[in-house]
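re: ur question from the group chat, yeah i did fold both. here u go
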Amino acid sequence: MFGVCFILARLLFIGAINRLGGYNAAIVCMAVEICGLLMLWLSPSSGIALAGAGLTGVGLSLVYPALGVEAIKSVPTPSRGAGLSAYAVFFDLALAIAGPVMGAIALGRR
């Protein structure tokens, strides 16, 4: 459900970044993602959990491109390729570290 909603949101709402601006689009998307994660956390049934996963996918879908637009705006035009590469590397690194760290925290609380 997460992946399907992620892809559909990317296809349907990609113009939102240009309309709202990168930061505003990212804030809205993060708020949607938080709602989805709260639904997952508090879900009393698998249906609500699936809806939460879908909402999380919708929320996360535009965070990367929205923040990427803003990151590239601050880089001089001749260096934009390098700027986008650095942005991609650090975003991927953050995702790679966050999962195991959150898993370790969750295991420590049991």
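okk and heres the other one u asked abt
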Amino acid sequence: MPSRVAVLLAVAAVAALAVGSGGFSAVSADRQVRVDVVGDADAYMSLTYPDAGVSLDGATVEDTFLTVRNQFTQPVDFTVTYTVSTGDGLDGTPTSDSVTRRSVGVGEEFDVPIAVRCGASGTQYATVSFDVTADGADVFAETTDARSVEYVVDCPSVTVRFEGNGDAQVDGLSGLAGTKATVWTLESGELTAHEVDVAAGGENVRPAVGGNETIVAVTLDATDRTYVHPDLRRTDDGFVVQPAGEGDQLGSNDPADPVCPGAVDPADLAPTDDGLTCPR
């Protein structure tokens, strides 16, 4: 349940000081007063945010972590400064930012959203910490302590599998339908990148790419990962797809290996005795 909290205000009165339920009384221009405002109706800088953990699911999700409302008796400029802390399996977008809304009218409010993107499957966690200031002609207010919102994100498992016929498919996430992707194909030792939209949930990547070249790598924007054909090798004559050892076969539905963070050009993969690995 979201809770509307009243913040402790540091009010610098230039010609007047907000008191009570919104009235003003004259004070000297340089007087510093701290006012503890309680109750929804009497909160001057009203902040609404979840007071319990927020559960989300999906590869890329957005949520409003804060709503700010002006309950002064004059327009004010609001600034929300926030940071997003995540584990390795989750990315916040952006990781920190400062959002300013100028001349917010009396009784008006605005939302501050956050986007998180899964980089690994399973349960992932994020914390949004924020501070707020309000600056008007006669008033200044700020939060005295950083507030925070906790997120628990259920990240689905995403698998890219490379088939023996040179095709590839994305499994495990119907929400990826239509996601932007870079698909790398191989022909005569040369790699070619294709910027396409791909589907998921067992859908073949081939229709988005066309042609009959072997698909050897897929970068998905939604997961910010590059999935590489496990049998891709680099030779003196360019790239080839071949089994890792004698007796091995190019199997059907081989899962990607390696899976690299970010958008990686397969040409930048580092060679090893067993194939290729992600660049450091």
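fwiw on the second one: The chain is about 0% helix and 60% strand. The CA atoms of residues 184 and 265 lie 8 Å apart. idk if thats what u expected
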